[in-house]
Amino acid sequence: MIASLVFDSIKALPPEKRTKEVCIVCTDTRVEIPAVVARVQGELDAMNTHSAEHGLNIQAYLLKPPSQQSFWVNIIGRGYPPPNRSFRWCTQRLKIDPVSTFIRGKLGHWGEAIILLGARRSESGSRAQTLAARAKNDFGLRRHDDLPRCWISTPIEHLSTFEVWEYLMENECTWGGDNQALFQLYKDASGGECPLVVDQSTPSCGNSRFGCWTCTVVERDKASEGLLATGDTKMEALLHFRETLIHYRDPENGYRDMVRKNGQEGPGPLKIEARKELLSKLLALQEESNLPVISEEELHWIQTYWNSARNPDDGTGVVNIIFQQKGDAMPDSRDDAYLKEIEQRVTDKKEISLDTLRRLVAKVEEYGESHRAVGLQDELLQILQDDLRERQTEKGEAHA
Question: Does the pLDDT at position 327 exceed 90?
Answer without folding.
Answer: no
